[in-house]
Amino acid sequence: MNLKKKIFSFLNNLRNRSETLPESAIINDSGSLIRNRNPEPLFVMDNKLLSGKSALITGAGRNIGRSIALEMGRQGADIFFTDIDRDSCVKLEQELKEFQVRSKGFLSDISKTEDIDALHNFLVREKIVIDILVNNVGVRLDHDDYNDIRDIDPAIWQKTFAANVFGPMYLTKLISQLMVSNEIHGSILFITSIHESVPAGWTCYSSSKAALAMIVKELSLDVAPHRIRVNGIAPGYVSENEHGIPFDFKYAPLHKTSINPCYIGRAAVYLASDYFSRFTTGTVIRVDAGLSLYNFRIADNRSHNGI
């Protein structure tokens, strides 16, 4: 079969498969069975964009971190990950078996240098070369909510920056050094937040995320000579119920719901993949359903127009 016939045959099969895909059955919050009019394009979801790569993901036990691990595993990457909850580590290792990739979870606290050193020593000892580092861990402590500058607690700032900035930067230093010494043209990702630039009343948390946004830019220049890329993702409100359905959220202009974590995972695959992002560095992608665009003027105009 010549090339022209092969291409025609492939496109014809692709069309037939898309026409015969059933609508996905999902369950809403009330427990009723409904139809998803936009089913996932499963037949184009397994291109193995990260085959032969090893990814290290921090805080992968739940929500965004878990989805990044699953989406990267689906694309063929071996997954090494950390979390502070043992049960979450065990559960994710089981979930990753579906993709027939190597995976291992580490009980590790990113805010503790001794835990980072232990993780680094393991990777070196086992000769595991990391191609993709995802700094996902992020904390927002309850006491970060205050209305008066007199309520600022330096201890809260120290704990927040230790987990959100200092720990990730120390891990990034160690992993990037391994990339350079092994001549790995790697990818480093930071999960920031739209609150890196949008105030939220969380002064400490938002400031730590703003620090990460600038780290992405500065670090991308530092490691570019080694062909290492550094990028970030700034999510909006990311959450779903136990059935995988996002929650109603009137402030999101697009879809009026929260964001399923898998879409942050897919954005991470995009940035980690050489196929898509070989020339992308120093960039922070917002995945927020337009939430960061919403302001009092938009709300006022919509209320007047009955939207």
Question: Would you kindly provide a brief summary of this structure?
Answer:
The chain is built from nine helices and nine strands.
Would you mind describing this structure in some detail?
This protein is α/β, with parallel strands linked by helices. The protein has one domain (about 45-245, about 260-295): Rossmann fold. It contains nine helices and nine strands. It has helices at about 5-20, 65-75, 85-95, 115-125, 155-180, 205-225, 260-270, 275, 295-305; strands spanning about 25, 35, 55, 80-85, 105, 130-135, 185-190, 230-235, 285. α6 (about 205-225) links the parallel β7 (about 185-190) and β8. α2 crosses α7 (about 260-270), α4 packs parallel to α5 (about 155-180) and α5 runs parallel beside α6. The termini are far apart.
CATH class: Alpha Beta
Termini separation (Å)? 57 Å
- Structurally, how many domains make up the residues? 1
Q: How many whole angstroms does the radius of gyration measure? A: 21 Å
User: What is the overall silhouette?
Assistant: globular
Q: For the residues shown, what is the average pLDDT? A: 87
- Number of separate helices: 9
